[in-house]
Amino acid sequence: MKTDLFAVVSGVDAASVAGAIPPDCRRDVEPAPSAVCAGTDTLVEAGPWRPRRGTRHLLPAFSAISAIDYSVRFELSVFAGGAWSPWVTTVTVGSASFAPLAAEAPGLRADVDVFTVVPPAEAVRVRLRLRADDTAGLLAASWLLTLSACDLALAEPAAEPVASARLAVPALSQMREGGALGARVCSPTSVAMVLTYLGAPDSVARLAAEMFHPALDIYGVWPAGICAAGRRGVLGYLLRFPDWAAARWCLDRGLPIIASVRYAAGELSGAAVAETPGHLLVLTGYEGEDVLVNDPAAADPATVPRRYRLAQLTRVWLERAGVGYVLFRP
Questions:
Q1: Distance between CA atoms of 306 and 302, rounded to whole angstroms?
Q2: Considering the entire predicted model, what is its pTM?
Q3: Which residues contact 209 (CB under 8 A, 6 or more apart)?
Q4: Is the dihedral of CA 147, 103, 223, 244 positive or negative?
Q5: Going by C-beta distance under 8 Å and a sequence separation of 6 or more, which residues neighbour residue 146?
Q6: Is the peptide bond before 48 cis (omega within 30 degrees of 0)?
Q7: What are the residue boundaries of the structural domains of the chain, listed by start?
């Protein structure tokens, strides 16, 4: 499996961003293109980018180190069969009501926060649609736009760790911190743990309120967590991790991973919940044949830190959604 992470930056040292991306996924970090006014919206178009292999899974993210309130929508077009597709859009992160745009075109489909392409596309371009209280001020801040492009080929078997890494990520229980919403806020709780680790703590309640998507009635729209981190001085990206080696590279460099997993009963020994159609947890290290995890679904902070078997974690994460949030200080 191959994943390319394309990135454009403004007001951020490109080398510091590149240094937070696994080398096998890293492409050039480019300066931001000029923004274009489109009525009440502002558009930033990046690309076209050509992945190393035909891409089938595309995942955008945006983070701005700014307290300015904004809404963002990701729009994408792919080149396949000798032509560019129409633009297709994900859901909006934020309160703005943008003009309607299709969620699918021939061979290209958006599902909440991820695009899928069949057959694989040769090239891709992404368009960021912004609306803000102060758009000029937002774009003058430090910001990062990324696009993860993966071919979804069969992954190589995971190599077992030959060393160890352990990151001191504070433990938070979504069941304790989330109150009546406890069972629903694994993503805000995971983001809160990593922000605290990075020296930018905030409450699960505030993060959950900010990350909530009213139309979908969920707290787990992936790019919303990246946007929320930016408002607290932390940049981030979403990556369809191609293999365990890329994850281990992040952990070795002090970068926890918020991983999206799903599993049936019996697939993850010692799990905080017996089964789940979708859950976020924090990878905090590895040791021997175990992956060290902060699982926010645990009933209390003392039982949040856990060890999951590498082979099982690989199956329920990398062989399924494979998506991870990586947050870092620029």
A1: 10
A2: 0.95
A3: none
A4: negative
A5: 5, 6, 7, 8, 60, 61, 62, 237, 238
A6: yes
A7: 3-150, 164-328
Sign of the CA dihedral with 109 first, then 111, 115, and 119 last: negative
Phi, psi angle pair for 327, to nearest 5°: -110, 145
Cβ(284)–Cβ(294) under 8 Å? yes
pLDDT at residue 330, rounded to an integer: 85
Q: Which of 169, 181, 140, 139 minimizes the C-alpha distance to 284? A: 169
* Residue in this structure with the two tokens 């080696």, named with its chain if needed: 245
pLDDT tens digits, residue range 55-65?
A: 999 999 999 99
pLDDT digits (tens, 9 = 90+) for 271-293: 999 999 999 999 999 998 999 99
Amino acid making up residue 161:
P
Q: So what's the architecture of 164-328 in CATH?
A: Alpha-Beta Complex (3.90)
Separation CA 44–CA 130 (nearest Å): 8
Longest dimension (CA), the chain: 56
pLDDT in tens, 190-211: 999 999 999 999 999 999 999 9
